[in-house]
Amino acid sequence: FGNADESKNQAISAADGAVLITAGPGTGKTFTLVQRTLYLIEECNVKPENIFIATFTEKAAKELITRITNELAEHNISANINEMYVGTFHSLCLHILKNHLEFTRIKKHYRMLDDFDQKYTVFNHIQEFRKIPDITKILFGKPQNKISSWKLAGEICNFVNNLSEELVSAENLIADTSAEISTVGQILKLYQEILTKNNLLDFASIQVETYLLLKNNPAILNHLQEQITHIMVDEYQDTNFIQEQLVFLLASDRKNICV
Question: Contact 62/238 with Cβ under 8 angstroms?
Answer without folding.
Answer: no
